[in-house]
């Protein structure tokens, strides 16, 4: 789960990282009362979105009066920032900045361990900073102490470990003219698999990777992997989109490429979803039923690579269970292979026969992108 700036700063304060004095506004709040509670004049008004580059996309305003603040807050709530829904607006003191630095902790996929990244060149264009100006310090999760004098390095490491984070970032890490170090912004991504360890995370407002509130279907799918059976495979990933082609992907490696293949064929996905880790029949049934509940669908693509240990028969039982109930009339294209694939495909054939479904089945002899073209042809013939 990615946190909004104002949420991340609460985590920072908990671990001793200084942040600017500020107040958070949600729709309907008294803007004047919130602004006046700060007791300062010059402020920064920032849209709370999950994407970056707010400053370059009119999502950050500098104000010095109540009318300016009220106008900025209202304007920010009325817009999208890089296509992202504005969940809240943060008003905070304008810092008197002397220096801008950068610090983060994330996982290095090459070393397969956390790494602290630091540069004394921070700000909006950190990605353009030359490599020789960036320090990378490997960290060991068995050692809770950081051997460095980089500001807030130890506090950030404490936050990373104790809060089960995947990423913690301060950009910019500001040194004010009076010598104080302050986290002017925050970026935190939490490890979703650690939710059971953090009761307080339940208080975080639901959000999606699309930067908007979750739809009813997205909320429903999130429940699939909850409860005692959370560890039995994954089937609770679902992002709703504007298209009309339902998607049921298995595995994660080729899913994004499959989305591109679908779009290249002139089709628009109604959702992104995937199940993996050999989920039980019941989980796949709940996911399929929710995916197919979206109105206006014109096709269904069930695709995945060659499974290593996911039981194709058992997962297909869940899909067939939902198809028996819904009996869709639009074309369905299936491409799957792996353990018990023959039994799974037979279940699909029987389901198509008894429900008079328009289903085409493919194994590993056909690429997934080829079956996207098959689905496109079938949809065009409707």
From TrEMBL:
It catalyses: oxaloacetate + acetyl-CoA + ADP + phosphate = citrate + ATP + CoA. Residues 2-142 form the ATP-grasp fold succinyl-CoA synthetase-type domain. This is Uncharacterized protein. Keywords: Acyltransferase, Ligase, Nucleotide-binding, Transferase. The keyword Acyltransferase applies. SUPFAM superfamilies: Glutathione synthetase ATP-binding domain-like, Succinyl-CoA synthetase domains. InterPro entries: ATP-grasp_succ-CoA_synth-type, ATP_grasp_subdomain_1, Citrate-bd, Succ_CoA_ligase-like_bsu, Succinyl-CoA_synth-like. GO terms for cellular component: cytosol; succinate-CoA ligase complex. It holds the Pfam family Citrate_bind. Residues 237-371 form the ATP-citrate synthase citrate-binding domain. PANTHER family: SUCCINATE--COA LIGASE [GDP-FORMING] SUBUNIT BETA, MITOCHONDRIAL, SUCCINYL-COA SYNTHETASE BETA CHAIN. One of its GO terms (biological process) is succinyl-CoA metabolic process. Transmembrane segments: none annotated. One of its GO terms (molecular function) is ATP citrate synthase activity. The keyword Methyltransferase does not apply.
């Amino acid at each position: 789960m990615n946190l909004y700036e104002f949420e991340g700063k609460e985590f920072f304060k908990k671990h001793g990282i200084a942040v600017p004095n500020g107040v958070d506004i949600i729709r309907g709040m008294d803007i004047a009362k919130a602004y006046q509670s700060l007791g300062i004049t010059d402020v920064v008004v920032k849209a709370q979105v999950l994407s970056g580059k707010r400053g370059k996309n009119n999502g950050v305003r500098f104000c010095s009066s109540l009318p300016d603040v009220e106008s900025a807050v209202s304007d920010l709530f009325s817009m999208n920032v890089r296509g992202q829904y504005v969940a809240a607006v943060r008003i905070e003191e304008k810092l008197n900045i002397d220096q801008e630095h950068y610090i983060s902790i994330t996982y290095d996929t090459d070393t397969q361990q956390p790494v602290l990244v630091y540069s004394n060149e921070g700000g909006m264009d950190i990605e353009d900073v030359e490599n020789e100006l960036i320090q990378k310090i490997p960290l060991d999760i068995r050692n809770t102490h950081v051997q460095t004098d980089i500001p807030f390095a130890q506090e950030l490491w404490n936050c990373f470990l104790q809060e089960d984070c995947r990423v913690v970032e301060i950009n910019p890490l500001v040194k004010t003219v009076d010598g104080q170090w302050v986290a002017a912004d925050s970026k935190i991504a939490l490890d979703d698999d650690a939710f059971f360890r953090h009761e307080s995370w339940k208080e975080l407002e639901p959000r999606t990777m699309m930067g908007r509130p979750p739809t009813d279907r997205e909320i429903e799918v999130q429940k699939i992997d909850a409860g005692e059976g959370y560890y039995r495979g994954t089937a609770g990933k679902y992002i709703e989109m504007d298209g009309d082609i339902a998607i049921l992907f298995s595995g994660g490696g080729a899913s994004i490429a499959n989305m591109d293949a679908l779009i290249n064929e002139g089709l628009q996905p109604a959702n992104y979803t995937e199940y993996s880790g050999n989920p039980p029949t019941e989980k796949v049934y709940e996911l399929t039923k929710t995916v197919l509940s979206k109105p206006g669908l014109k096709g269904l693509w069930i695709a995945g690579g060659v499974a290593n240990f996911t039981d194709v028969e058992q997962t297909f039982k869940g899909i067939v269970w939902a198809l028996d109930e819904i009996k869709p009339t639009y074309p369905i294209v299936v491409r799957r292979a792996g353990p018990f694939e023959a039994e799974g495909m037979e279940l699909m054939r029987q389901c198509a026969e008894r429900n008079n479904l328009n289903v085409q089945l493919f194994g590993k002899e056909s690429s997934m992108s080829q079956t996207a073209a098959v689905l496109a042809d079938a949809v065009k013939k409707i």
